[in-house]
Amino acid sequence: MNRFLIITLIAFALTACVKDNLGDIPAEKEPSSKIYNWDESAAKGRLMVRLAEDVESFDTEGIALNIEPMFPATRSEKLNRWRLVRFDESLDLRTVAEAIALNKGVERVEYDIKLHRIVGKAEPAPASRPEPTRSVEMPFDDPELPWQWHYYNDGSLGSDTAAGADINLLNAWKYTAGDNRVIVAVLDGGVMANHPDLEANMWVNEAEKSGTAGVDDDGNGYVDDINGYNFVVDSGAITADAHGTHVAGTISAVNNNGYAVCGIAGGTGKGDGVKIMSLQIFENDESCYAHQIAKAFIYAADNGAVIANNSWGYEPNTYLSDSEYERYDSVLKDAVEYFESNARLEGVIEGGVAIFAAGNEAATTADYPGAYNKYIAVSAMSANYTATYYTNYGPGVNICAPGGDLTYGTIMGISSTSVDLTYGYEYMQGTSMATPHVSGCAALALSYALKRGYSFTSDEFRRLIVTSTHDINTHQTGSKRYFDYDLGGWKNISLEPYKGKLGGGYIDAHLLLMQMDSTPCLYIKSGEEATLSLDEYFGDDSESLTYQGCEVTDEVRDALGIQGKPRIENGLLTIQCNKPGTGRIKIYAIIGGESAGGGNSMGGMVVEREAELVVRGAKAENGGWL
């Protein structure tokens, strides 16, 4: 049941329940239209109030109020009007809300309700296992990398893996592995900042690190915020959390350090990984409140983060539409809007990108806020392209990424950093494991943008992310077996309902970089001769054009094991590559004649198109010139 549909009725009933010591609420003024989000989880003794323009404060006769700005001063006039109002916890919360709403200077009153963290099952690293046999050489020396199927999957790690069910990271790493100027905010449990696979890639507030303990050395409104901030207890002391640490490692565990796992944008071991800003909004089993998360988004924007990774949300069916979210959840929406408008990486991106887990309830919609049309919500797939049994799907879901499926054994989970340093890593599953794959790819893309001198608005960059995908729908056929951990026992689940509802496809890190270059990708299965139409690249009349040939460097020929000489006939390119990898080729066509014009000749224009050959053990669907 949608609880917000009955808020007005509750408010009318409450006007008759005012405690004697609060005075009478005048009958001629009905304040309930200003009050939003009643829930049993609402914090006692606290309300969030937005004042009207040019109003500084208010009072309520008979109630002692402590009124303070909700946020440190921001660049947003609307955010600067929010107040956190505290009062005696023994007072009836809804009655106080009614009394506050009577003030003409009060524009809006919201209950501070709890949100839930999106977590999945976890398993420790195994004590022993057979060595993996991989079809390509690993580019970094981190011992767990060969087991990170979610980065490169050739189908060799087990019967429940399928070649190509990954984010194609090894090919992306040929162009960049990260840049320490990019900052990703992890809104989650606290990140273990001194983890040997994370410490070098943690964001550091140098003014606070070298300043005086207990003093706000940089004047940003937060004391001792060295690696971020703990918004649960309002302190710079961050508590290491297994979930937040795991998420951070997927994004930016240090690469090539001979320890544990690799991070998507963790660099090359030379101090060039993207930075993790730990914004703690959960501590132990304690859920957070809306105002704490709102403060975290504003902190992220004001302190340099441009990507916000979010593994939390409302329970399913809390909101049933975008308009409900816009109407009822103003404080969070205002804060995320501030992040997406005001975050900056100078010269690269104007505005931030908020990325959310879709949810683990197997619900037929994404959880809000992630379901909102301006945010990115991520569903989860297994190591064989199938939807995970727990993932939310349907409206609100934008993109899919590997989330792990421990049903099929430990290696089918997502391997990332752990607070348990016996191994330094562990396996988890969940859409909250899929989400940092998208955040990591986004961070990698911004690293590439720094290298290439590209710049985007947040809207443009968001569109690039959600279109750098491959088809996942063709894999959602038949059924799959899974273990129900709540009820116990094995079950079968039909995959048909997931078709067309997991987002636009599963993300490809390499394709995202190529889209930034405006370079088309030609996807080829290794060991087989491929014949590819050039219609998409030279127009529908490509069959009638005269081709001067296909240029392939010796380096690319050797790297991809190209057999023979590529040939073009009747608008079709025929080529065979025997080694997985990537490489650029150039195709030359004459448009406007059978020979090239120039000098004393009349002829056509020579058009050169560059393409990226992507050779894998499996050919991705919908790959092509984008």
Folded structure, characterized:
- A hairpin with a 7-residue loop joins β19 (414-417) and β20.
- With 626 residues, this protein is an alpha/beta fold.
- It is 19% helix and 24% strand.
- α5 runs parallel beside α9, α6 packs parallel to α8 (330-342) and α9 packs parallel to α11.
- It starts with 6 loop residues before the first helix and ends in a 10-residue tail after the last strand.
- The chain is globular, with a radius of gyration of 27 Å.
- The chain has 13 helices and 32 strands.
How is the topology of this model organized?
Blueprint: H1 7-14, E1 35-36, E2 46-51, E3 66-69, E4 82-86, H2 93-101, E5 106-111, E6 114-117, E7 122-124, H3 169-172, E8 183-189, H4 206-209, E9 228-230, H5 242-252, E10 275-282, E11 288-289, H6 290-302, E12 307-310, E13 312-313, H7 322-328, H8 330-342, E14 344-345, E15 349-350, E16 353-357, E17 376-381, E18 399-402, E19 414-417, E20 425-428, H9 431-452, E21 456-457, H10 458-467, E22 469-470, E23 479-483, E24 490-494, E25 506-507, H11 509-517, E26 521-525, E27 528-533, H12 535-538, E28 546-551, H13 554-560, E29 567-569, E30 572-577, E31 581-591, E32 605-616
Parallel strand pairs: 1-5, 8-10, 8-12, 9-10, 12-16, 15-21, 16-17, 17-18, 26-32
Antiparallel strand pairs: 2-4, 2-5, 3-4, 6-11, 6-13, 7-20, 14-15, 19-20, 22-25, 23-24, 27-30, 28-31, 29-30, 31-32
